[in-house]
Model the fold of this input.
Amino acid sequence: MSRYVFKMPDLGEGTVSAEVVEWKVKVGDPVTEDQIIAEVMTDKAAVEIPSPVTGRVVAITGQPGDMVAVGSELIAFDTTDGAAARAAPAPAARTSDATPGAAEAPAPLQWFPAEADLPED
Done:
């Protein structure tokens, strides 16, 4: 197993931690690069965190409402070839229960890792 640990990124100037709002994945789920894996909230904004790699989730840190410090482990992946294929299939897309014509909340910002945050080949 090739384990890739993704640490909580610095999401803004002076940010020391972020609150986990919602996990979009759970342990055992297959993920693809750039798939949204979590939503976190800093003191300034809600931010969606995309996966930096393709693989299978092997560990997550914190539950909704928990604070995770910048630089500490946020999520770990098995990036071995075929790890995503061995994991359970992704759940079907949810349908919206929203009232037609109702205003939707603006989407949270997305954070994309800098090239320095990506694993070396």
In short: The domain at 3-89+108-113 is CATH 2.40.50.100 (OB fold (Dihydrolipoamide Acetyltransferase, E2P)). Residues 98 and 106 are 14 Å apart (CA to CA). The beta strands are 3-7, 17-23, 30-31, 36-41, 46-50, 55-60, 67-69, 73-78, 109-110.
